Amino acid sequence: MEQQIGRDFALELVRVTEAAALAAGRWMGRGQKELADQAAVDAMRRVLNTIPMDGVVVIGEGAKDKAPMLFEGEHLGCAEEPKTDIAVDPIDGTRLLSQGMANSIATLAVAERGSMFESRYIAYMDKIAVGPEAADAIDIDAPVAANLENIAKALNRDVRDLAVVMLDRPRHEELAEQVRQAGARIRFIMDGDVAGAVMAASPGTGIDVLMGIGGAPEAVVAACALRCLGGGMQCKLWPRNDEEWTSVREHGIDVKRVLTAEDLVHGHDVFFAATGITDGELLKGVHYFGDGASTESIVMRSRTGTIRRVDALHRPSKLDLYGIPVD
Hints:
- This protein is globular.
- The strands form 2 sheets. Strands 1, 2, 3, 4, 11, 12, 13 and 14 form an 8-stranded mixed sheet that branches. A 6-stranded mixed sheet has the order 7-6-8-5-9-10, with helices on both faces.
- About 30% of the residues lie in helices and about 25% in strands.
- It is an alpha+beta fold.
C-alpha cells in the first residue's frame, strides 16, 4: 500500500464522509433514525464507488441494530488496486442526530486487506481509550480507580481533574459509581462512542478517557483513529445474551483476551476520516445556507501521523450529486 496509495488518498476519503454528513444533516431533529441512516448510507456508497481502490466492507452497519447498511463483504471502489478493508459508521450517533443533539458524526476507515478484526458472533466490547500521553498507563483488567490514578499520573494531573466519557446505559451504573468514588468526573453520552474515543485521544476536547461497553464494530472504527492519533486502547469481547455465550462455546472464542488498537487493525497504513453532522466538541456540524452548505472534517493517516482538519464549502451543484435539497 505504501507504493499504491498516495498522500491524496486521505482527501478522497473526506469526500465520502462529507457526502454522508451532508445527506444525513437534513434529518437533524426530525425523529427519523432509519431515514437519516439510509440517506447517509446511500451518499457514502455513491462516493466510495468513485474512489480508485478495490475495497471490501469488513465492518459495516446494520447487523447489530438492523439499520440500513453497507453490507459486510460488499465491494466498493472503481479499481482493482489497492485492495483494502473498509470500516464504516455512516452515522455515529444516529439517535443524537434524530433528536437534534450534539456530537453525531459520519466516519470511515480504510486499511490494507485482511488487517481489520472481525467480531462475527459478539456485538459488544468492553473498552478503555486514552490519548498518546497515557497510552501505556491503561490496563482493562485493573480496577477502575487504579486506571484513573495511572492516567492522572501520566497526564501530570489529579484524578479529580479527569473527565471520563461513557454511554448512558443501565449496564454502566456500577462503572459510574466506581469512577465517582475515585474522584473523577463523568460525561455521559446517549450514543456515539467512536466520537467519544476520538475525543479522549484528541487534545482540547475536555475528555481524558473513554470507558465502558459499546459496539464491537465501533471499536474497530475507533481503533483506526487511535492508530493515527497514537492513543491507547484496550478492549475485551462482551457477550450480551445466551445466544452469544453459546457462540463463545461453539467457536472457542477467548473473551478474556485483551485486544489493543493494533489487534483491532494491524495494518501499516491506516486511514480515518470523520465529518461532523451536528455540532459537537470534536467537529462542527453541517450548516446549510441559501446557496450551499459548510462542513468540518478530520482526516488522519497512521503511517505519517498526519492529522488534518478540513473546512469546506459545498455549492448546490455538488449537493445535487448526492440528491440533497439545498433550500
